Amino acid sequence: MATAKFFSFACLRNESSNYGELSPKPHYPSMPKYPKGVSVSTDEEKSIYGTESKAVFSVNGMSCSACAGSVEKAIKRLPGIKEAVVDVLNNKAQVIFYSTFVNEEMIRETIEDVGFEATLIIEETNEKTSQVCRIRIKGLTCTSCSTTVESALLLIPGVQKAQVALATEEAEIQYDPRILTYNGILEAIEDTGFEAILISTGEDRSKILLKVDGVFTEDSMRFIESSLRALPGVEDIDIDLELKKLSVSYKSDIIGPRNFIQVIESTGSGRFKAMIFPEGGGKRSHRQEEIEHYRQSFLWSLVFTIPVFLTSMVFMYIPGLKDGLDIKVVNMLSIGEILRWVLSTPVQFIIGRHFYSGSYKALRHGSANMDVLIALGTNAAYFYSVYSVLRAATSPSFKSTDFFETSSMLISFILLGKYLEVLAKGKTSEAIAKLMNLAPETATLLQFDDEGNVVKEEEMDSRLIQKNDAIRILPGAKVACDGFVIWGQSHVNESMITGESRPVAKRKGDTVIGGTVNENGVLHIRATKVGSESALSQIVRLVESAQMAKAPVQKFADRISKYFVPLVIILSFSTWLAWYLSGKYNSYPKSWIPSSMDSFQLALQFGISVMVIACPCALGLATPTAVMVGTGVGASQGVLIKGGQALESAQKVNCIVFDKTGTLTMGKPVVVNTKLFRSMVLREFYELVAAAEVNSEHPSAKAIVEYAKKFREDEENPVWPEAEDFESITGHGVKAIVHNKKVIVGNKRLMLEQGIFVPVDADEVLAEAEELAQTGILVSIDSVLIGVVAVSDPVKPGAREVISLLKSMNVESKLVTGDNWGTANAIAKEVGINDVIAEAKPEDKAEKVKELQSLGKVVAMVGDGINDSPALVAADVGMAIGAGTDIAIEAADIVLMKSNLEDVITAIDLSRKTFGRIRLNYFWAFGYNFLGIPIAAGALFPSTGFRLPPWVAGAAMAASSVSVVCSSLLLKNYMRPKKLDNLEIGGITIES
């Protein structure tokens, strides 16, 4: 499973985990108090649950890939393993794992249990030696180009991983910053002959591009740079003297872009003016630039090609014009031939120079691409024509036949095809463009006096918002950044981010997401996440990363591309040679040869046609364009798919393991019943219980505290008595001293472990609660069982229907939960699941997934809690509920943003449709080449007299690439299964 990209969707998360009876979420020791709905930093979670760690082992004794496979398989069976890669050549194993569930010693022992000697490599394990940068590459034309660049990158010392995406013309490189810098990577790409532009580096958490006016010397720019470097929080500065541009990387918690502008403008006594650098160099402008380049090239080629076409194929049949063109200038050289030569030359060498430079770059690195085929084909036609007309000029009897129209028309049609191709490719990434357009261009900044009154309003570029800024959002306006409401009430339409169709009510303390739309009231918000940290930016990054990642099926096309062009050149030469020798030795009737040419020229046309009809581009674009459109469509439907690997695995899924709490259930438990076994005032009972549970982040604890507030109706935020010696007992409950009384709240096992007698009455209440799919929580005070609190977490609307639809799709459903058996069975029965595993610890869930995989099943895990992370990693496809925890979302391959179970079906169905489209693309690409090449070689000529002129073959080649991209674009019309459109949920019919 590919390493999942970090995705902190904090605005959508809640703190639910698969806690249940036996797997509680531990207490955060010193949890800071945030406004309602504001999320807690994942650093705090990781300090408790364990960070993602990497260990590298030296493994001795491996002799083949089978040995490496057995070691890798054994490691992956361990709980908490995120990724394991075994390198048999270097005798190393690299393991990424969650330290809560497994450690280096356990992994080492596991390797030795397989029969190999393992040693932990300390220096490689402890140092963080990985950084990622993204680079745009101009000039990629086919899979061969991307493979050439990728191979060159992988040969650079320090590069750990490199992916080059043909469809997006971008590269993502993971490298060791101790050995290599991104400047070295840029130079290496440019050495392969392509232009490289840095998009981002892993260290650029927050980055701003500023343009400075009023700078006339290099010293002034350096002076500005030194002034900015002196500021706290500034991490790095890159300057572009030519464009007078500054790229500033900074810590957004300490400083922001307005500070930079202020410092720059005060540095030169008002001489310098700074602003956000005008949009340019981005993906959209690059794509527009490419589209315009091909459009202009095609139009200029037409200026010269149309007269060439007319003089060679139209005017020759018009009396008068034909006579004029046939007038001889020197010996047998005519005016028509000179005109065609003069007009075709700019097309060949000026307009078509791109094909020469592309061929040179490819051949210099020992590869061949589409440009090589086009350059060979057009040069063969052009230079044979030059030879023919020069021979006519020097001979009184030789009558020349030129192919100038072949070379110029061939280039024109290919340029038209490239123009249509880049136009269509631009549409494949429209999903990202639409997401980026959600952010408003401007925002209204508020300034307050000491009493909290607004004293100043200022409209500014929304990219200048800094953390803790107060922003006014008017009705109908877009929310400028992530934050929380500090004043006002309104409803906000969040459908464009979360997929929630109904506007969500917002009041003081509630969170808002940048890019959503304020419906009615005025809101004042406090900015918490800006720029690259916002939820919208992270969604965009996630979709971009997904579109970069190659699906395994694409490796097939990459392998073919290495041999495709050389094979076509061999076929082309063989075709010319076969026809030429056949004509020379009269192997076919003379009547087959057209009157305007001889056997050599006929053979040359067949050879050129074979060369230019072959299309490696169609093969290279078949997978990435479909993945781009599929992931984009998924994002628009609230299903974030992390790349081609996830798409390919999801379409094979035949078994789904569901978590219970927060996945099949709402994840928001409520107290439904209280049973006391001793005489006690209910208010006092809940006073003690709430005082203990308020320190816990578990959903059931929150439900009890919320219920206890009812006994203090006069207080909006009651202060509970102080709990001393608080302790959270993982999987069982909590205990504390409140008012000098020992209070224990938890399950039956906790009570028995603490030596507390559980009477028969309490067992009966617990059994009754379990039958009703409720969780019974026992409460003891001073070692005496006082009562039982029944908590119910209702099943999500439509859960039963979703399980039924999955069954109709031949997908099995299973339930794995940390809750007790009674509650788990009741929930499973309600939703229609037969296979249940209850009282499961996190490692038990991962083991269950691996057990199913050992039976040959392709397993998806659907969960939302931290306890689900090991299982999400172990599964072939991990699906995280969007409202779940950050760690679960990070571990998953697919994020269901709307937290709707129906989207599980959407994800599987979309992946199946996408791979159906990929198969169709490959069928077309291979079918086109298998049929087109023989026809171009003259397979039909002996029986039908049909031959394919080279310019027609070139047009067919161009059309092939365009057709594959257009085929992928049809995925934009994807509609989720009709069965979901009228799904009845709780008596309400939902229409999409």
Automatic annotation (TrEMBL):
EC number(s) given by UniProt: 7.2.2.8
Signal peptide (from-to): none
Ranges for domain HMA: 53-119, 131-197, 206-272
Protein name, per record: P-type Cu(+) transporter
This protein's record includes keyword Transmembrane helix: yes
Parts of the chain that traverse the membrane: 297-318, 338-356, 368-387, 407-424, 563-582, 602-622, 922-942, 948-971
GO biological process: plant-type hypersensitive response
Record's catalysed reaction(s): Cu(+)(in) + ATP + H2O = Cu(+)(out) + ADP + phosphate + H(+)
Compartment(s): Membrane
Species this chain originates from: Nicotiana attenuata (Coyote tobacco)
InterPro entries reported in the protein's UniProt record: ATPase_P-typ_cyto_dom_N (IPR023299), ATPase_P-typ_P_site (IPR018303), ATPase_P-typ_TM_dom_sf (IPR023298), ATPase_P-typ_transduc_dom_A_sf (IPR008250), ATPase_P-type_domA (IPR059000), HAD-like_sf (IPR036412), HAD_sf (IPR023214), Heavy-metal-associated_CS (IPR017969)
